[in-house]
Automatic annotation (TrEMBL):
<dbReference type="Pfam" id="PF13454">
    <property type="entry name" value="NAD_binding_9"/>
</dbReference>
<dbReference type="InterPro" id="IPR036188">
    <property type="entry name" value="FAD/NAD-bd_sf"/>
</dbReference>
<protein>
    <submittedName>
        <fullName>FAD-NAD(P)-binding protein</fullName>
    </submittedName>
</protein>
<feature type="compositionally biased region" description="Low complexity">
    <location>
        <begin position="589"/>
        <end position="611"/>
    </location>
</feature>
<feature type="region of interest" description="Disordered">
    <location>
        <begin position="579"/>
        <end position="612"/>
    </location>
</feature>
<dbReference type="InterPro" id="IPR052189">
    <property type="entry name" value="L-asp_N-monooxygenase_NS-form"/>
</dbReference>
<dbReference type="InterPro" id="IPR038732">
    <property type="entry name" value="HpyO/CreE_NAD-binding"/>
</dbReference>
<feature type="domain" description="FAD-dependent urate hydroxylase HpyO/Asp monooxygenase CreE-like FAD/NAD(P)-binding">
    <location>
        <begin position="8"/>
        <end position="188"/>
    </location>
</feature>
Length: 631
């Protein structure tokens, strides 16, 4: 091994970029005098944005966050040992790129034009985020101290070999890198279609129909969906929103303002006809278009490090959710009482004292809220939020469409009306919950059943539904497409059957008893869930085949098992190696989406103590300390 320690980071997207920023921030303190370090970033896609945030994608695809709510930099709220290196949010950088060195003009004229007019509350295109991530990587590289050299390889890592006690060999398609430490920062990965899609795939092949399994929409081949074809869509989340954009405006249609408000859609004639539904039956809530009217809620309050939990494995809904729900309630009512005191009937201190004392579930808390908040529409109802169409029965398809359009209009009105800024207080609490879970779960593991059904299932779905929705204008577009007859809502608890007699996919919902919709194509509009056994990443496939990584598998005392599809890591993000009897590999680390840290978001809202920033800092400090000893 060379006298200069070497770190290889596989993945140069947002997570690899964030780790490099933390290396630059911590190296002056942790690398001793005269100690050098070589850092190699490996990624076949453009560094900074990586595959998901690459510039080469449709300008129709946007972020689901406002420009002012996106940052790659730590701040005074980040709980970490390393130094804070403040940096601009996407909005601050876009306002004056030349004020933030190192400055290079943005080459794409369309992206440069968007940057010139981007407002803090705009929802940028993903291409603008790519430019911001590219600049972030260049800034991190420029801030590396003189004793740290950076090498970027536009290449694919295929294998890692080497004894745990010696150098690691990272085999790229064009060369081999010798490393003292290796970090996998692979981001969101594809998986081959699983057995749950086998029947649909076989049916489509047998009848000459189209079936698209879960995929990142920007990479999906939509050419098989013909103009005028009736297409069934499962899923109403962000992948669905992107799908709709590409199949409408992406095929030449146009939206124009309608007199009196709303939008009108002008078809190109090349659009398919979409019939869409899901478990809830409604699209994700639109993002709020306003700021808090009161001070930010001081979080955490009920769901933080002091939470008392039973020994041994726990259950999410039973042991965690009551405190989590109470935290959401605190965030909501903190904003209602401070931002809109005229709509409350008790002093905040009196309400808070009782709210702190009473359990979330129970008649006492319900009575407190009824006394303190006169208007029922101002009261937080998490169950109604979770299942807004529960019990819905429509008399006809037209009645169902009317109900769903009314729901979208009401959601749009609420998310754009400052009177309802308490919803944003609940949103802040949800972000806090996510960060606290990352800290808590390694210490208090969940049962296999609870992890599958409640953490990876219900909670992830509820969080995304409430907190990860699209910009409001996307719901306006859905309404316009519904008016134009190109989008029909199928309702909640969607069921899709394979109709062998007619050779079509058949959709139904209990909201419209006895009614079925037939389609000649089916799209599963979900982001693919990573499954290590079916991963599309060649490096992970090699490590799995060689028995050097394995998938998280949880087993309950009664024998119930759950395989999450995630790569097992320890709390310090070291890869757990089956060849070492499941102990951490001393030279291999993995971060981000496909790992059991369950902290996939690589960038965050400012001043939210983002889990990924905390993890990047801890890993950077550990690696620098270890690498100094390698010299």
């Amino acid at each position: 091994m060379s006298a200069v320690p070497v770190l290889v980071v596989v993945g140069a997207g947002p997570r690899g970029t964030g780790l490099l920023e933390r290396i630059a921030a911590n190296a002056p303190e942790l690398l001793g005098p005269g100690v050098e370090l070589d850092v190699h970033l490996v990624d076949p896609h453009p560094p900074g944005g990586g595959r998901i945030w690459r510039r080469a994608q449709s300008p129709l695809l946007r972020m689901n966050s406002m420009a002012e709510d996106v940052t790659m930099f730590t701040d005074e709220r980040t709980t970490m040992d390393g130094p804070v290196r403040p940096g601009p949010s996407l909005a601050e950088w876009a306002a004056d790129p030349a004020a933030h060195p190192p400055h290079l003009p943005v080459e794409d004229p369309e992206v440069a034009a968007e940057l010139r007019t981007l407002a803090p509350t705009d929802f940028p295109t993903r291409r603008v985020q790519s430019a911001y991530l590219d600049w972030t990587l260049r800034r991190a590289a420029a801030e590396l101290p003189d004793n740290v050299r950076l090498f970027v390889h536009r290449d694919t890592a295929l294998r890692i070999t080497g004894d745990p006690a010696g150098p690691q060999r990272v085999h790229l398609s064009g060369t081999v890198l010798l490393a003292d430490r290796v970090v996998l920062a692979l981001g969101h990965l594809d998986s081959a279609p699983g057995p749950d899609t086998a029947a649909a795939r076989a049916f489509a092949a047998r009848h000459g129909r189209s079936y698209l399994p879960p995929a990142f929409t920007a990479d999906a081949d939509l050419s098989g969906l013909a103009p005028g074809e009736h297409v069934l869509v499962r899923g109403l989340g962000l992948a669905f929103v992107d799908l709709v954009a590409l199949l409408t405006e992406g095929r030449g249609g146009r939206f124009t303002p309608r007199p009196g408000g709303g939008l009108r859609y002008h078809p190109s004639g090349r659009e398919p006809v979409l019939h869409a539904g899901s478990r809830r039956g409604v699209p994700y809530h639109a993002k709020t278009g306003y700021r808090l009217q009161g001070p930010p809620p001081p979080l955490p309050r009920h769901f933080g490090p002091d939470l008392e939990l039973p020994d041994g494995t726990i259950e999410f809904k039973r042991d965690l959710w009551p405190a989590m729900a109470k935290e959401i309630g605190f965030g909501y009512y903190h904003e209602l009482f401070h931002g809109h005191p005229e709509r409350t009937a008790l002093p905040w201190a009196e309400f808070l004292a009782a709210h702190d004392r009473l359990p979330w579930y129970g008649p006492e808390r319900a009575a407190l809220v009824a006394a303190a908040v006169p208007d029922p529409e101002d009261r937080l109802d998490l169950e109604r939020l979770d299942r807004p169409l529960a019990g819905l029965r429509a008399g006809s398809p037209a009645e169902l469409q009317q109900h769903l359009r009314a729901h979208l209009r009401a959601d749009l009105a609420r998310r754009s009306d400052l009177r309802h800024s308490a919803d944003l207080g609940a949103f802040h609490a949800l972000l806090s919950l996510y960060g606290q879970l990352v800290r808590l779960l390694p210490v208090h593991p969940l049962t296999a059943r609870s992890t599958a059904a409640e953490l990876d299932g219900w909670w992830q779905g509820f969080f995304s539904f409430y907190a990860s929705g699209p910009p409001g204008f996307r719901l306006e577009q859905l309404l316009a497409l519904s008016d134009a007859g190109l989008l029909h809502f199928l309702g909640p608890d969607l069921r899709v059957d394979l109709d062998e007699q007619h050779g079509t996919f058949r959709a139904s919902s209990p909201a419209l008893p006895g009614h079925h919709v037939h389609g000649t194509a089916l799209v599963d509009a979900f982001l693919p869930r990573h499954d290590l056994g079916r991963t599309g990443d060649p490096l992970l496939r090699h490590l799995l085949r060689e028995g050097r990584i394995d998938e998280e598998e949880l087993t309950d005392p009664d024998g119930h098992r759950y395989r999450s599809g995630l790569v097992r890591t320890d709390p310090d993000a070291r890869l757990l190696d089956p060849a070492l009897d499941g102990r951490p590999h001393p030279r291999r680390t993995a971060l981000g989406a496909p790992t059991t840290t369950r902290a996939p978001a690589a960038f965050a809202r400012p001043r939210t103590d983002a889990p990924s920033f905390r993890q990047n800092d801890a890993v950077a400090r550990r690696l620098l300390t270890e690498l100094q000893k390698e010299e």
